[in-house]
Batch of 3 targets.
Target 1
Amino acid sequence: MKKIKVLQINKLYYPDIGGIERTVQHIAEGLKESVDMSVLVCQPKGRGVKEIIHGVPVQRCGSFGTLFSVPISLSLLWELRRKAKGQDILQFHAPFPLGDLACLLSGYHGKVVIYWHSDVVKQKKLMVLYRPIMERFLKRADAIIVGAEGVSKGSSYLKPYQNKCVTIPFAVNQKIEQEGKEYLEHAKPNLEKCARFLFVGRLVYYKGVDVLLQAFSTVPNAELVIIGSGELEETLKIYVKDQGMIDRVHFLGKVEEESLYRAFSECDVFVLPSVAKSEAFGLVQLEAMAYGKPVINTNLASGVPEVSLDGITGLTVEPGNKQELSNAMQWLVDHPEERCKMGIAARQRLESNYTMEVMMNRMMRLYECLLGDDSNSC
C-alpha cells in the first residue's frame, strides 16, 4: 500500500528546541514508519543544508537572519513550491507568517493542515499587515489542529473556523515517558516541609519568570532552579542578586538532555508562570508530569490549564498575580503529602491522555480522513 506523503513546514527544527520544534520532531519521528515524512524549515541564519536526522529527511533553507521572530528566507518560498509537488498533505506549524505566504504562493492544490500552536500576541502592530495573509491561509486550510479545546476557544482568530478545528493533544516523547517511569519505580517521596521548584523555558516576557521570582522571594524553605536562556536572562539575574536570593535561585542556562531529566527528577514541583496566551499549551508541563511532579500553572485563555488540573494534579493561579503564585508555592511547601498525591495523579493523567501512541493514532486518523471520500467530516 502506498504511503501517505506528508511535508511538515516550520520555522526551525531540532536541535533548535522549543515547544513547537519538539512537536514537529515528535510527529516526524513518530510517524516516519507509517507515512512518507519529510520536514522543511529555515536556518536561524546562514546557508541552506539537507540532512537526515533520526531517520527523517530535513531541509533547512538559507536565511539572512531573524526579524520579529521570523527567519528571513526567500529560498523557503522557492523550495516549498518545488517540494510541494507530489505531496498528499502539507502540514504547517503556526504562527509562521512566511509559511503562510509560501503556501499561498506555492500553487499547491492538495490538502493543507495547520497546526495552530498559538495566536500572535506580542507583535500586534504587525498584525495589520499580516492578518489578511493569515485569514486567506486559514480559509485555505482543510483542517486546523489545536492541542486543547482552550486553544481554539481562546483564540482571537479561530472563531470563524471552529468547524475546521480538530483537537489532538500534545505528547511527551517516549524516552521522557520511560525515564520518568523508571525514576518513579525507585523514587522516595520528599515528605519534608521544604521544596525545590523548577522552571524550564525561554526567558522571554510571556513566560512570566519575573512574576515567578517576585512570588518566590516570599517563600521560605524552598529552592528554585531555572533552566533556559533568553533576552531577559541578565535582568532576572540582577533581580535575584538585588533581592539576596543567589543562594536559593540557580540559573543553569541551556542544558543537555540528561541534565534536564535529572532536574525533573530532583525537583518537587514544576512551575509554569506564563502570563500571555502565546503559551498555548505548555508542553513542558507534560515532561514534569512524566516524572510524577505536580504543576503550578496559570489560568490562561488557552490550553495551559487543561493540561494540569487545579486541585488534582497541581494548582492553577491567575496569570501575573504574584500573590496567588506565592500562596500556591507556599501551600505546596507546607503540604508535602498532598504534593506527592498530586504528583501521582499527574503521572496517571499523562498516561491516559498525553502519550505518543495516543497522539500519533489521532494524527493518522486525521490524515486518512482528509484523503478519504468524506474529508468534510474530519
Target 2
Amino acid sequence: MTPQEPKYRCKALVTAIMAAVMVLCAPLHLGAQSVKGIDVSKYQDNINWSKVAKDSTIKFVYIKATEGTSIKDPKYAINIKKAKEAGLLVGSYHLYSSKTTAYQQFANFKSVVSKKQQDLIPVLDIEGHHCDRLYMARVDKLLELMETEYGVKPMIYTSERLYKTHFAGKKYAKYHIFIANYRTYPTTRFTLWQYTERGKCPGIKGNVDFNRFNRKHSLADIRMPKPKKKQPAATTDTTATK
C-alpha cells in the first residue's frame, strides 16, 4: 500500500503496459461487479474528496493510519474526515514493522484510529519484504489485539508469495485476505484484490491503488459489525401485594 515495497515497484516498460492491461481487464475477472475502492496515504498529498466521490464506482477507501511503533500518517485525520463527509465508506490500515513488538504497534494504531469512525474492518498491511523474517507469534498477537479492540478480525493485506508461505493454513481461514498483484489475477483466495498501483482518479494527483472484490464477496463482508443494542435493565416491582 506504500511506495516502500520494492517488489511491487515495476520500472520496466513491459510491466507498465501489463499494469495498464490489468486495469482494463479487471472487470472481466470479476463479473459485472462495478464497485471498487482505493487506498491512500500521505503519498497522495492533498486529496479533493468531493471529486473522488463523483466517480460512482468508487464506494470505499482504506486510509493509512500508522506504521510500526511511532509513525503516524500526517494526512490520516483530514483524509478520514473529508472522505466520510463526501459519502465514502472508510477504513484504516497499519503498516506492520518487523522491528517492534505487537503491543507497541497496537498502541500506536489505537492512539490514532477511533472505532466510532470506522465503516470498514481494520487492515494489517504486511508487505512482501517481510517474507523471510516474519515472526508469526508477533503477527498473531497484533491481530488478536486489533480484534479485541475493534470487535472484528482485521483483514490481512499481503502479497501472494507471503500468503502462500504464512497465511494459507486453516489458522487464518476466517480472516479476509487483501491480495496485491499487479500482473495477474490472484491464484490464492482473497476478498479484495489490489490490481493496480497506477489508477487515475478525479481529485487525486498522480497514481492511486485500485481495489476490487472477489465475485464471491462484497462490501457487506468488510463492514464493521453493528453495535449491539443495550438491553434495558430489568426492573423489579417492589410494591407489596396483598
Target 3
Amino acid sequence: MTATNPPDNQTLIDKRQQHFLPTAVLYHNEPLQLVKAQGEYVWDSDGRRYLDAIGGIVCISAGHNHPRIKQTLIDMLERDEIQHTSTLYLTRYPVELAETLLQEAPEGLDRAAFTNSGSEANELAFMAARQATGETMVLNLRHGYHGGTSGALSQCGHHNWRFRAQPTASAVSALEPYCYRCPFNQKPDSCNFECAQNVETTIQTATHGKIAAMIVEPVMGVGGFIAPPEEYFTEVTRIVHEYGGKYISDEVQSGAGRCSHDFLLSKALNIDADIITMAKGFGNGAAIGGLLMRSDIADTLGGKLYFNTFACDPYQTAQAKVTIDIINEEKLADNAMAMGQRLIDGLRGLTARHELIGDVRGRGLLMGIELVKDRKTKAYATAETTRLMDICKDLGVLLGKGGLFGNVIRLAPPLTVTAAQIDTIIETVDNAFHQLAKEA
C-alpha cells in the first residue's frame, strides 16, 4: 500500500467500517480517495482532477501545497531541525509566529497562544474567561459550533453533534441571528435586532445575572454560513460586557483573510472582542490553532500551569507563519473579497432559474446556498442537497454542506481562486440544479 499504488476505495471503506468509530462519516454516495493536491485542485486515486470549492473543509487558504510552504518544510527537514520541542524548550518558530500574528490583531489584543486545533483554542478561551471573571456560565448561539471536545460541544447548537453521554456544563443558548429563518419572524425592513436583545433576556432569565463569556462565530460555519449584520455584534458585545462577561470571537472558519480585507473578520467588523480564536486556514491545513487575548485576561492565568504537548512545535508554527506571510504578500484577502463578490453575484443570479434555492448568503469566500423544497414553507431540502453535491462531484467540482438539517451547500475555495474558476463553480452548480430538476 503506497502513495503511487493506493488500495481500491472499497478496501478503504471496509477497513474504516471495521476499525474506525461509526461517527466517521464520508462525503458522497461513492466516496473519493484523494491522493494529490496543487493550488485549487485535488486528484483522486483514478487520476481525475477536481476543483476544490470547499478548500479542504475550509482549511486551505493559500492553496494546496503552496511552493513556499513546501520549500519551508523541505528546508527544515534537510537541516534535521527538531520536529517536537513542546513548550518546555525554546524554539524560534512559535515566537516568530506570535509576532506576525499580533501584527494582525485588533487593538488591545496583545497576547497569543497556540494549540493543536480550533476546539482546543476555544477550550483555552473558556478557561481564560472563567479565570478572569470568576464566573462559569458561557453563552452560545443556537446553530453555533465551536469544536468536538467536551467543553466546546457543551456550547454546540446542533442536536446531531451532541451525544447522550455529553455533559452540557455551564452553558446556555441564545436565539440565533439567522435572517433567512428569523426566530422572531421579522423581515429586514422590520428588524429591531430582537436576536441581539435576546442575549440580554437570556442572561436575565437563564443565569444568575453574571456570565463568564459569550462565544460567537462572525459567520456561523457548521450552521450553514449564517452571516449576521455588523450591527448585531455592536449590540451583543455591549450586552456581554455590561453583564461582566468576555466576548470570544470564534474565527476558526472566518479568519485567515477569508472574509475581509483584514486577516481577521473581527477586526474588519470592529467587533469589541476580548479573545479571538482561530485554526483551519490559519495554518493552511496544518494541525494548529491559536488565540489572541488581552493582557489583563492572560495575566489572571498566572500561578497556574497550562501545558500543551504539541502547541509550539516548529513545523506547524513555521507553516502558519509562512501562511500569514503569503496571504499578506500575495494580497489573498483582497482576492477573497473580489472573488467572493463574483461568486455571490453569480449564485444569486441562479435563483430565478432554480426554485430549490431559498437563500444565498455569506461573507468573502464563505458562501452558503440554502436549499428548500418550497420557498413559502422553507421546508428543508436535505436529500436534494446531498444529491446536488454528488452531481457536482461528477462534474468535477467538490462542495461541502452544513446547516442543522444538512440542506446548505457550503463553498469555501482557496483564497487563490481565480475569476475563471469562480465562473466554473457557478456554471457547474447551475448545471447540477438543471440535472437535479430532470431527476425529480
